[in-house]
Design goal:
By secondary structure, the protein is an alpha/beta fold. The protein is built from 11 helices and 13 strands. A 7-stranded parallel sheet has the order 3-2-1-4-5-6-11, with helices on both faces. Strands 7-10 form a two-stranded parallel ribbon. The longest helix is centred in the N-terminal third of the chain and has 21 residues.
Length: about 350
Amino acid sequence: MELSYNNVLVTGAAGFIGFHLSKRLLDMGCQVSGLDILTPYYDVKLKENRLKQLQAYPKFTFFKTDLADRQGVDAIFKEKNFDVVVNLAAQAGVRYSLTNPYSYVESNLMGFVNILEGCRHHQVKHLVFASSSSVYGANTNMPFSVHNNVDHPVSLYAATKKSNELMAHTYSHLYGMACTGLRFFTVYGPWGRPDMALFLFTKAILEDKPIQVFNHGKMKRDFTYIDDIVEGVVRVMGRIPEPNPEWSGDHPDPGTSYVRYKIYNIGNNNPVLLMDFVTAIEKALGKTAKKEFLGLQPGDVPATYADVDDLIKDVGFKPGTPIEVGIERFIAWYRDYFNV
């Protein structure tokens, strides 16, 4: 793949997606700066072990900096002169946002302004930023399309991600910045987050503890394997968004704009019933789960399903790793990492 970028900032580099993306870019020969503050939202040791792998590359530089530290972030932009910035740092998690709202405001809003300002003042060619499938909120029109209105979030986490999209559009309008937002759909795979279903279920089943199955198993998720997410991000990084000549203020299209701004879904385009997901884990582990069935949790949506037509049309890529394959790879990593 032809590189239109060489010097990249990845924020959240010790995180799940940030680690995999940084590794892929380093393998491609890019100079990568990773920014992370290593928050204790989940096991810091896991983040440190991801980081160790990246620090083995001579072209990787790590900055332990808080996204919300305005001077600290600006100093990194001044020093490094980035071509492309990929903002993956955020306070993650829907349920956590019900009890810790301020951490979302600091990371996802204040932190994002610092990234926008850094890009604006230091002539970054392209800002690619993580949004989330959670922005679809109360939408029930499936599959979720970037051309649908998303004004009804059902968690503060989703509201902050929608805010990022709005803020980026404003900077595109005011300063001509090229900005692309990516709505990720339930990402899973090796080195994944311990607060996510696959990790929680695997751990519980191996320890003979019951798993919590929400919405009585009637949830559907567009589970997307990490390598597919990274492939999508890398392809989008090399594609500067162009203004849509057909965009009209009379009928505004939320997914494109009259400025250099674009939104893509990156999802598997194949929603899986939660119970089928559990069955695939049981099969890979060779062990049956004890199940505790619970109702739908506040902030959760019953189903997600990504329309990826724009991604296919613009960058020629469609995620497609089957969950059986992805789950097997995760469990192989889990057994190796935890020595079980």
